[in-house]
Design goal:
Elements (H helix, E strand, L loop, with lengths): L2 H10 L4 H16 L9 H15 L6 H12 L11 H4 L5
Helix pairs in contact: 1-2, 2-3
């Protein structure tokens, strides 16, 4: 996914640029981790990371809103599912 698309998603999730940067950094660290076994595609992983940081910073985002936003912006509604990988990779979140 292109960086400008990631920023557009983050802004649509109610995030500020510095919060989006944290999500991107976490995404990169997780994706490049030697123990990462691609439980989620790269696109879904960045959506998961954006969702987690949007929730942390209390942007008002919900799973339903993420699905609606991703459907509008990417053509496919994607539900965030960080629970698929948080147990093994939460320590890599910034």
């Amino acid at each position: 996914m292109r960086e400008k698309d990631i920023y557009a998603l983050g802004i649509a999730f109610g995030m500020k640029p510095l919060q989006i940067n944290k999500a991107i950094l976490s995404y990169t660290q997780i994706r490049l981790d030697s123990n990462w076994s691609n439980q989620r595609s790269n696109k879904n992983l960045i959506i998961d990371c954006l969702y987690l940081y949007a929730k942390e910073y209390k942007s008002g985002i919900t799973v339903k809103k993420v699905e609606s936003i991703t459907l509008d912006m990417l053509g496919t509604g994607t539900k965030p599912k960080p629970n698929k990988w948080l147990a093994t990779h939460k320590h890599l979140l910034v």
